[in-house]
Amino acid sequence: MQKILASIFDLRTKQLSAVQSDSKLQTSNSKLNIEVLSAGAGSGKTYTLTGRMVELLKNGVRPAGIMATTFTKKAAAELQERVRVRLLEAGMTEAANELGEALIGTVHSIGTRLLQRFAFEAGVSPLVEIIADGDEQRLFNESLSQVLTEQRIERMNALADRLGLTKKTVGETYDWRRDIRQLTDVARANNFSKEILKTSKLRSWEAFERLLPLAQTTDATTWQNRLISALEQTVAALDANEADGTKTTRDAAETLRNFQNQLKYRGELYWHEWVKIGKTSPGAKSRDLMEDLQNLARSCDEHRQFRDDVKGYIDLVFDIATDALGEYEQYKKKRGLIDYTDMETYVSRLLRVPSVRETLSRELDLLLVDEFQDTSPIQLDIFLQISRLARHSIWVGDPKQSIYGFRGAEPALMQAIIRATGGVKDENILKQSWRSRPDIVYATNAIFTRAFSEMPVEQIILEPAWTADGARQTVHDATPSTVYREPSAALVHWHFKSELDERKVPGAPWMDNCIAEQIQTLLERKVLIYNKKRTETRPVRPGDIAVLCRSNKGCLDMAEALHRAGLKASISRAGLLETPEAKLALACLKYLLTPSDSLSAAEIILLTNEMNLEQLVGDRLEWLAFKAGEAPPPARGSWSELPYLRELNVIRPRTADLSASEILNLVLDELDLRRVAVQLGNSTQRLDNLDRLRGYALDYESACQRLHSAASLGGFLLWLNNLADAELDLQGSGESDDAVKVLTYHRSKGLEYPVTICHNLNQNLKEQIWGINLVSEVEEPDLDNILGNRWIRFWVNPYADQFRGTRLEETLLTTPEWAAARRTALEEEARLLYVGLTRARDYLVFPTNAKGTGWLNRVFNHGDENIPTLDPDSDETPFYYESQPILCQTEVIYKPRDFAESPPDETPVAFHPARAGKHPVPRQSLLIDPVQEMPPGFDPQFGEPVAWASWLEFKGDYEPALGKAVQSFLITDNEKLTQAERLAIAKKQLEIRGVAELVSPESLARQSAAFRSFLEKKFAPQKTLGKFPLEGLHGQRILKLEADFFVENEEFVAVVALAPFAEGMKKWRQQAQMPAQLLGWWRMMLRQTKPNKMIQFWVIFPIEGQAVEIRF
Q1: Interatomic CA distance for residues 951 and 966, integer angstroms
Q2: Range of 1008's domain?
Q3: Quick check: 540 and 491 in contact, CB under 8 A?
Q4: What is the three-class DSSP state of 794?
Q5: 471 pLDDT higher than 50
Q6: b/e per residue, 514-542, with b = 16+ CB within 10 A?
Q7: What is the DSSP letter of 927?
Q8: Of 300, 302, 303, residue with least CA distance to 278
Q9: Do 138 and 124 have their domain in common?
């Protein structure tokens, strides 16, 4: 069946490809039926879209004929609901009810519905399931593992080492598999064939080779010998140069000796180490001694092996990626699966099928594309095809906010589409900012009319909808009266200086600490902010403030600084499984899964404060000593009697038929773990994290359902571990009114904040020259072939952190590739800064220090970061409005090098009372379990072992069944029986236990006779009873006991218990512990029933022939 489906699949794919080729001629001259709306940040885009859609519905557009794509599901739901409300307000009830038939959603959701509808035309099942992103990564990794042979792995590891890719640097640990994954992602997102990948491989190396000088013909051995010789001579010369005893020269000589050692033990130097040698410089009096070695090291780019390594790495990345793509496609095809990239490719081809185009052209009245600047090339191709079919096509976006280049968005394509439509008409430009105060709007206009000089000015500037002289506002604060107060200046400049040296900036996290403390000051000053309608003001709260950072690590550092300043931070970051609340919940799940998991039990005890660490360790050591027979039982008793572990033991039977998410919810509810989490502090974050953990449980079950695999609690725990290993175990954001928001500039897109603090304004420009870059072969994109005329350039930096100052860098800086990379980086950071500055509603804060604002300078000054924009000694800025500089409230703040930590404000959390009905009432069972419960006052004293017979010899290794056979015979043996009868009973016992080959009946009979003789000599008993029962009351509870032997005469009573094998008395204390516990209960009962007799207690080791007296 699978082969038939695969054949149909291949046939339909070929047909679609043929249709795609033929349809290019049909659509190439089609006019673009697109109306582009330019919507700057905060310009009322959703309101305008709603109005346009309602107007079109009034003029004949059918609700079922609407197709609208948004960037998120939330945006789609909001748009649909707003349109519905407006229709109801206009009295268009029927249209409002029919709006549910409109196709409104994300690109992926709409694409999936189209694919399901036209499944036959696409050659897929109507029940096609799309692989989720997380599943896609796992399935691709499985495919990658199939093509990664041991030889390839060894080769890639060796090349990565030699090219310095694995050198430890600041940032993420390098993994060459990431290069392969990124290459395949780009290839699939752009629908590149194997031929294009092959061409890209060749052209990548050809382009890189042009950066290198001509290679020498010298072989590798000669290079190696020259390097060894030059190092030896140079080190000897430096050591012998008595005229130069400077530390610089000594350090240089030591560095060279380290390289000598590397060369000796490794057999080679990596290319960045060659460069390092070329940069190593001794004192002035020894520089001529280094010259020959330096020249040799700097010429490493002429080494044939250097070229082979770079080319080998590039080639191998492309080869593995191509093979992995093929394997991945086969994997999906065999299982009838497709992922989102496949879906987009299918839809792109589908829209070129005549029958599909004819159907959609009859049905589609309106195509609406929201945030079109964030779409990938293949998504743009889809939208272009649909726009040619719809009666109306409205695309809304803002190229200034195209910041998702790392996801495949290409601003050049957006601009090409705008130009192809004749540009944005004046009536389609949203010209007012409904978000920000006037000075913020004017400053943004001034900055970005310079940064986006190629764009029409009217698509950049906005006019503030809220003017400074608007209606008077009232302020509501803690005071009973209501007074009017104006908020302070909208632009704020915090310039921080070090108290030690104002010209220098202390190292990290000094700047983060400065911002955190100043936020605390801002809150103490009760700075006023407006409500959204600008009718009232109130003092700012922590939740009104957002700090924007360039990287996720920067966000983490900023959040830590806020915590040190006594403030809470709302931040989405990885590390959920490292939080105490998640550790507690997972420890409970692990304990439910495995009751013997003592580590999980210890975590539960520790995290619920039932014991501190010292008590926990001490209690555990006491328990181990007790189990080894070296100490009495711990005073606390068993851990299983502690409240949380006891409750988990109670609910364990209920979890047998529950899913992972149901078990997690049961644990959270029955153990009231949310209350425990709140007591840890930062309650909102803790509760958010527990909710995120519940969400992951549902995600795991959904993934299992999609992949048709079984879901289990153990599987969920392993799935979470894999998530944590990939650093994808994201915590909850912990958003609340008392937490400052910390997020990246990218993540802030689409949001707004009363107070926005733009951190990292001194960020260096990051040109993307290394790694993967898409290269276009045409200056103007071909809208009829968006995905064509491009190839992938993949370059690798062979010198790691030693690249600066090399001949390769000097050459690269003069190339068109570098110029393009710099231009792209400048454009990307300008767009990113635009997004950051336009998040501000009431206050836009620029935090700076002595390092200046390189990022802001470059954006404002056409790439020149040396021209300052913000002056710490003036309130004036270079940003002008109506020929007047826009003022900025500048505050110079001196801060110490070290900051004192402030305790967090832990306001008590209002929490519902504990459920009285769920508090267990301790009740003891009617029947005492003498094995599990300790007798009162149990404190046994062990006498020294006494021999009553020799060792019972047996063959082979000891088996527990042998011990059972020996004990059974000792109890059933009777001296009144004949020797033949005794031997027959012994033989029968050995056969029953399956140990007849280990010991003879005669040996067993002799051991029993010696035991009976020991009892006779020791006790002179009047009666000896085996398996003697005793039953009585202890308080209101029943105690039932059974002694192995009960021996009695007129003066005393002896109770004898048989112990297991003690390995030749090596472990006799440990093995005597449990019998001693039972004897302790006998002592308590016999003191009541035999008060006038002396009582002795003995433990017998039958195989060892030893006896131990137990005294209490």
Answers
A1: 13
A2: 927-1111
A3: no
A4: strand
A5: no
A6: bbbbbbbebbeeebbbbeeebeebbbbbb
A7: B
A8: 300
A9: no
User: 667-710: per-residue pLDDT in tens?
Assistant: 999 888 988 888 887 778 888 889 999 999 998 888 888 777 78
**Are residues 614 and 644 part of one domain?**
yes
Mean pLDDT of the chain: 86
Regarding whether 875 and 961 lie in a shared domain, the answer is no
Residue 81: CATH number of its domain: 3.40.50.300
Kindly report whether the peptide bond that precedes residue 1075 is cis, defined as omega within 30 degrees of 0: no
CA nearest 119: which of 128, 108, 130? 128
Confidence of residue 919 (pLDDT cuts 50, 70, 90): low
Which tokens is 1104 given? Answer: 């060892």
Does 603 share its domain with 649?
yes
Tens-place pLDDT, residues 412-464:
777 888 888 888 888 889 999 999 999 999 999 999 999 998 889 999 999 99
Is residue 289, in this structure, part of any structural domain at all? yes
pLDDT tier at 1098, thresholds 50, 70, 90 = very high
Distant-in-sequence contacts of 663-672, Cβ < 8 A, 24+ apart: 663/589, 663/592, 663/713, 664/585, 664/589, 664/693, 664/694, 664/697, 665/694, 667/585, 667/588, 667/589, 667/592, 668/585, 668/694, 670/918, 671/588, 671/644, 671/647, 672/914, 672/915, 672/918
| Torsions phi, psi for 818 (to 5 deg) | -65, -40
Q: What is the pLDDT of residues 198-249, one digit of tens each?
A: 999 999 999 999 999 999 988 989 999 999 999 999 999 988 888 888 999 9
Distance CA 519, CA 588 (A): 39
Joined together, the tokens standing for residue 643 give: 């409240």
Torsion of CA 858, 862, 864, 867, to 10 degrees: -80
Which residue, among 761, 857, 740, 860, has the nearest Cα to 511 in the 3D structure? 761
CA–CA separation, 801 and 643 (whole Å):
56
- Phi/psi at 550 (5° precision): -80, -25
Q: Which of 924, 942, 923, 928 is nearest to 1030 (CA)?
A: 928
Q: Which of 372, 401, 371, 365 is nearest to 386 (CA)?
A: 365
Contact partners, residue 1038, CB within 8 Å, separation at least 6: 926, 927, 928, 1031, 1032
Given a contact cutoff of 8 angstroms between Cβ atoms, the answer to whether 1109 and 936 are in contact is no
Place of tokens 């390995």: 1063
Strands 771-776 and 790-795: antiparallel
HEC sequence for 799-835: CHHHCCCCHHHHHHCCCHHHHHHHHHHHHHHHHHHHH
Residue 231 amino acid letter: L
Query: Is the residue at 920 inside a domain?
Result: no
Supply 107's token pair: 């690109």
The encoded tokens of residue 647 equal 């409750």
Place 473 in a pLDDT band, splitting at 50, 70 and 90.
Answer: very low
State the maximum Cα–Cα separation within the chain, in Å, rounded to a whole number. 127
Q: Are 852 and 868 in contact (CB under 8 A)?
A: yes
Distant-in-sequence, close-in-space partners of 310: CB < 8 Å, separation ≥ 6:
163, 205, 208, 796, 798
Q: Structure pTM? A: 0.75
Q: How far apart are the first and last CA of the chain?
A: 77
Separation CA 536–CA 86 (nearest Å): 27
Which residue is it, tokens 């072969």? 777
How sure is the predictor about 905, in pLDDT bands with cuts at 50, 70 and 90?
A: low
Report how far residue 665's alpha carbon sits from residue 961's, in angstroms, rounded to the nearest whole number: 45
| Region of 896 on the Ramachandran plot (φ > 0 left; ψ -120 to 50 alpha; else beta) | beta
**Number of separate domains in the chain:** 6
Domain shared by 868 and 956, yes or no: no
Which pLDDT belongs to residue 895? 92
Q: For residues 401 and 414, state if they share a domain.
A: yes
881/1016 same-domain check: no
Say yes or no: 1081 and 971 in one domain: yes
